[in-house]
Write a structure and sequence with these properties.
Chain lengths: 115, 113
């Protein structure tokens, strides 16, 4: 059964720091991996989608990498800002053992960027 | 942003009453999903739909039913609500299966007293 783990559960950094959020998954048979942002009391906003054949994706100050063979992904945030404060969720779309196209989620990393 | 709305956005109900949550999309996507989000568990799939009148169970489907009579609408029904169904419910859509991005609605916060 596919499991997704995100470490750390919470992270606090000063403004301007570059930071890395980690995501690991137990089964490398995935179609893709998606990173989301969730603000308190809000829905999920898709940040980046990495297909299984890709190594990384970039959007603005965000860069996500994927090492499928080792079951790891990282989300790199450059020059962090207080507005980046949110919970970041990682999710994989498994090839086996899932319903049609559903995502398996980690429990998230709660990021706080201090001014 | 993907055109996904959920209604109601908040609901308080009593144990034993039926509740229906609605998800509406304007993207004409084929796949629709209902997840619940709970502290300590993350998001888990309840039911999904792969076309009009085509639905199937997810990981935590007990106590829930769904219906999809039109491409744009996906309904989640709690036949007899229980306190364990207090949660935040999210609808999601996807154009396809393998390579497609999944987009989420704003969520419905349900409290069962």
């Amino acid at each position: 059964k596919q499991e997704v783990t995100q470490i750390p559960a919470a992270l606090s950094v000063p403004e301007g720091e570059n930071l890395v959020l980690n995501c690991s998954f137990t089964d490398s048979a995935i179609y893709n991996l998606q990173w989301f942002r969730q603000d308190p009391g809000k829905g999920l906003t898709s940040l980046l989608l990495i297909q299984s054949s890709q190594r990384e994706q970039t959007s603005g100050r965000l860069n996500a990498s994927l090492d499928k063979s080792s079951g790891r992904s990282t989300l790199y945030i450059a020059a962090s800002q207080p507005g980046d404060s949110a919970t970041y969720l990682c999710a994989v779309r498994p090839v086996y053992g899932g319903s049609q196209g559903n995502l398996i989620f980690g429990k998230g990393t709660k990021l706080s960027v201090k001014p | 942003d993907a055109g996904i709305t959920q209604s109601p956005r908040h609901k308080v109900t009593e144990t034993g009453t039926p509740v229906t949550l609605r998800c509406h999309q304007t993207e004409n996507h084929r796949y629709m999903y209902w997840y619940r989000q709970d502290p300590g568990h993350g998001l888990r799939l309840i039911h999904y739909s792969y076309g009009v009148k085509d639905t199937d169970k997810g990981e935590v489907s007990d106590g829930y039913s769904v219906s999809r009579s039109k491409t744009e609408d996906f309904l989640l029904t709690l036949e007899s609500a229980t306190s364990s169904q207090t949660s935040v419910y999210f609808c999601a859509i996807s154009a396809g299966l393998e390579s497609n991005e999944q987009f989420f609605g704003p969520g419905t916060r349900l409290t069962v007293l």
